[in-house]
Specification:
599 residues; alpha/beta; eight-stranded parallel β-sheet; 13 strands; 9% strand
Length: 599
């Protein structure tokens, strides 16, 4: 296993609110995590909560304040930074004292850790203890307080009915909020390419090397494949901006929004990065240096790092080590399992109980997102129950109180949200006028009312967990990945980290498929559904060509896994073959060049 100075995992963003204060809980122990910058109103309420808890002066930033969204975000991130620094100071002051926070810090580290060895030596001699204390004071690793912006959530905003300039768009304002903060950390950009937002980064000096070549704020790109990474890396490099990390996520085997590939599986994607990582660096570094020189800016003091990390479905120490060792990754993201660690995230007790009892059939690949993007969630949480009650009472949809997901202009000039009352009533009225057969009508009806208010749904649990008052109609949406099915124990931070490093096992006794096979299973479900849809309209040649491509990519992935695991883990190959046999629609798919037909 690769030797790490600190931890070999990070905690990705968990919904809008679940990881909103995670850095406060884990950064002092050297663990990096990510805060979502979607919901500035929840951020402001959490700022008030933590200001009171740590006796820090608080002045409310109302919507009447100029640039309130960016200022709320800046103020909260500065607060988190201050709290983490306080905790780290306390931790350093406790160095080499048994039973203190520094001992907890050390106990969480991987067993093969240089720092852990140093601590053990410090316990044995006074001289080593003094040396260790000095080392702790100057070099102790603190987890990064990173932030996430979904690039597509860049809604236009208005003041007194007048459209505001583009820099007041949601994503632009969030970016400005981070850029103006005191943080020395990274910005995670997800959910696709946004040239306009990328160009906006050039307005902030912290993303460029200073006179000493130091870059205060780094860029992390969440990507789906190598081609996307190369294209976007070059765009940034051409602006004099360096992407320090490419964060690869499974298209479907993850929490929250899913962005399925065209059947290209996680393993082959990781293999592509492994083989072409040097090409990515060499292509971008020359463009980066040339752009800095053109701008008259200094070159970085050291050769910029280029990390490759991955996340989505990992659940065992063995899978963790496979990603690190075989694919040579710099870190692995563990997200969904931490939803059962209330010491780390903000979650209400009712939702925590639902998650701890959830099994495979309870974790669903749904259409509840107003963005029209597939969304992994869990059955039984309060928002889904409330949604059903609203529809049953003839009042489908929600009051749009925050409006972060207003994108639909089907019925209005200004965008509205597809989970709103306004949209759903118009859509249902239109549906009723079509006089469809009952089964077809019911299917279309369910699809319309499936959409949930994610703006409130993904923030409510965090507020409730802190005892912060919410309106009765604000219910909880939850966003775990399917991997949660095999985690049933509410755990501590120490227990979950122990599980990651193989010191203990938190999985229940049921059989759990390998993370690569679970993803394949989900893609086979998608393929089956697409074939069934196409069969209703076999004249759709475009859809047929896409099915052929999807099938070919899956077949390539299946062969890749057979080669990968034949020597490493033969039982995975056996299970893979059994899985394929459960999908005759995939196994027996025939590519016909004349007269498209599916066997």
């Amino acid at each position: 296993m690769k030797l790490f100075e600190g931890h070999s995992f990070h905690i990705p963003v968990l919904g809008v609110g679940y990881s909103i204060d995670t850095p406060i809980n884990v950064a002092p122990y050297g663990i990096s995590s990510v805060i979502s910058l979607v919901d500035d109103s929840t951020i402001e309420r959490m700022r008030e909560f933590y200001s009171q808890k740590f006796d820090i002066p608080f002045k409310k930033i109302t919507k009447e304040v100029e640039d309130f969204r960016a200022k709320r975000i800046t103020s909260y991130l500065n607060l988190v930074d201050e709290i983490v620094k306080r905790k780290v100071t306390e931790l350093k002051n406790s160095a080499v004292q048994a039973g203190t926070e520094i001992e907890k810090y050390i106990s969480l580290l991987p067993d093969k850790s240089a720092l852990k060895e140093k601590f053990n030596l410090a316990q044995k001699s006074r001289e080593a203890a003094d040396e260790f204390k000095k080392w702790i004071e100057s070099k102790l690793h603190v987890g990064s307080i990173d932030v996430n912006i979904m690039t597509k959530l860049d809604k236009v905003n208005y003041k007194e009915g007048v459209e505001l300039p583009v820099e007041y768009n949601d994503a632009h304002a969030a970016l400005r909020g981070f850029a103006n903060s005191n943080l020395h950390s990274s910005l995670v950009l997800s959910a696709g390419m946004s040239p306009r937002l990328y160009s906006y980064l050039e307005n902030f000096k912290d993303f460029f090397p200073d006179e000493n070549g130091f870059v205060k704020k780094k860029i992390i790109l969440k990507v789906s494949d190598f081609r996307s990474a190369l294209v976007q890396g070059k765009i940034f490099a051409g602006k004099g901006l360096w992407v320090s990390e490419y964060r690869i996520e499974s298209g479907v085997n993850c929490g929250g929004h899913c962005f399925p590939t065209n059947g290209v599986l996680f393993g082959p994607i990781l293999e592509d990065f492994k083989k072409n990582r040097d090409q990515l660096f060499e292509t971008c570094i020359e463009m980066y240096k040339a752009a800095l020189m053109k701008k008259g800016l200094p070159l970085p003091a050291e050769t910029p790092e280029l990390k490759v990390t991955a996340q989505g479905g990992v659940g065992t120490a063995e899978e963790h080590e496979l990603l690190l060792d075989y694919y040579e990754l710099d870190s692995v993201g563990w997200a969904t399992p931490f939803m059962l660690v209330p010491e780390v995230i903000s979650i209400d007790n009712e939702t925590l109980d639902i998650l701890s009892n959830a099994k495979e059939d309870d974790l669903v690949y749904s259409g509840l997102s107003p963005l029209g993007v597939p969304f992994n969630t869990v059955k039984g949480v309060s928002m889904s129950v409330h949604k059903a009650e609203l529809a049953k009472n003839g009042k489908p949809g929600y009051s749009c109180t925050k409006g972060f997901l207003k994108y639909n202009t089907e019925y209005t000039e200004k965008p509205i949200c597809t989970s709103s009352k306004e949209y759903q009533r118009k859509k249902l009225k239109e549906l009723a006028e079509q006089n469809l057969p009952e089964a077809e009508y019911h299917k279309a009806y369910e699809k319309i009312i499936e959409r949930e208010c994610l703006c409130n749904g993904l923030s409510t649990s965090a507020l409730v967990s802190k005892g912060i008052e919410v309106k009765p109609e604000f219910k909880v949406t939850c966003c775990p990945g399917p991997n949660l099915a095999w985690f049933s124990k509410v755990s501590t931070l120490k227990e979950m980290v122990g599980h990651i490093y193989g010191r203990m096992n938190l999985l229940d006794n049921r059989h759990r498929p390998h993370m690569f096979l679970k993803e394949l299973n989900m893609y086979l479900d998608i393929f089956k559904e697409r074939v069934e849809t196409w069969k209703k309209n076999t004249e759709d040649s475009k859809e047929y060509k896409q099915l052929v491509s999807f099938h070919e990519n899956l077949m390539d992935g299946v062969q890749y896994y057979k080669t990968l695991f034949t020597e490493k883990k033969r039982e995975v190959v056996t299970e893979l073959e059994q899985l394929i046999n459960k999908y005759p629609v995939f196994r027996d798919f025939k590519i016909v060049t004349t007269g498209s037909t599916v066997a």
